[in-house]
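Per-residue structure
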Amino acid sequence: GSDGSYGGDNYFQYINVPAHKTFEWGYRRGNPDHNREEYLSQKDHTFKAKLKWHDGYAGHGEHYYDYNHGDAGYKAPKPAYGHPGLHSEVQEQYVEAPVADARI
């Protein structure tokens, strides 16, 4: 509304840039049967996003992302699986086809 509140239907859009390399924006649009909400923010090397939707056909979804692009001494994790001999497949076998009578 005119006082800065969201109003009765809770649909809105906004953007805020409080400092250098810092921003956020978002919106909620639609109606009770079909709507979408999105929010993005970035501060230095950190990025966050949220997307939600709903429709009148029982559809609903949400996605959340949180990226930190700083190095901060990151080391790749070791594989969570064992060495190649630990698996459930059987050993490969090659078997000659039986010699059959050549009949047509």
In short: The CA atoms of residues 74 and 101 lie 66 Å apart. The first strand starts at residue 12 and ends at 19.
